[in-house]
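Late entry, written up from scratch paper. The run itself happened at the end of the previous shift, but nothing got recorded in the book at the time, so transcribing now.
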Amino acid sequence: MIFDEAYSGKVFIMSRKDYDSAEAVIYGMPMDYTVSFRPGSRFGPGRIREASIGLEEYSPYMDKHLEEVNYFDAGDILFPFGNAEKSLGLIEGYVDKLLNDGKFPLGLGGEHLVTWPVIKAMAKKYPDLALIHIDAHADLREEYEGEVLSHSTPVRKVCGLIGANNVYSFGIRSGMREEFAFAKESGMVLEKFDVAEPLQKYLPKLAGRPVYVTIDIDVLDPAFAPGTGTAEAGGITSKELLQAIQLIAESELNVVGADIVEVAPAYDPTEQTSIAASKFVREILLGWV
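Output as recorded:
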């Protein structure tokens, strides 16, 4: 797999230098070709890495230090700009390789459509895969303005692949009426507005199962994460998302991979969105790997 060498000097804090011995691999998916409002999330992976420089290596939430986790930052996948279909194929192929090598894939987006090929790869290895989806948006459209490859469609695609009854969405506060109707009729779990409290209710039902977790940064209220393409008022706090990550870490889930998507740095000159995302990455490394 070819990666963008421009990122060779920008890696997540305390990334190890050896891929072969790493338990987890951080990789960037800098794609934002199908966004419906504001582009710019292709710059998210790089800014999350740069923001990590300001992090402490120790987490008081997990009571762990990053030196306790062996992870490798592989940089960003090099995409053919503007070609969504080919880019998605490159993502699926790379995640196939990570899984064959026994790695925990931790992706940095990019728009939310990048999660779709990751799930395709994960489902090949884990036939009983479940998805935890944390987001402001339902992402249950079949298409957007006639385009089936859209950042508003990945969760609907996942429902078709692994079964809607294996999809658990939290924090949802935006979507078409038809999306909420589909969620109700299909058997998937869709919890509106909140994350930590409803998540706690469902975690025991997922105990022992392979679970992939995707986090769209816009689940946070714009007061905490203005740097995203489709901000939605009425979201959760950074504290609640940290609590959700910790709840998953303390549960009996078998988390087999994760991603954080939709960080668009251009809309946040204060960098608080990138700073928050980098902290979430640290907590995932310490709690889920």
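The chain has one domain: 5-288.
(Scratch paper discarded after transcription.)
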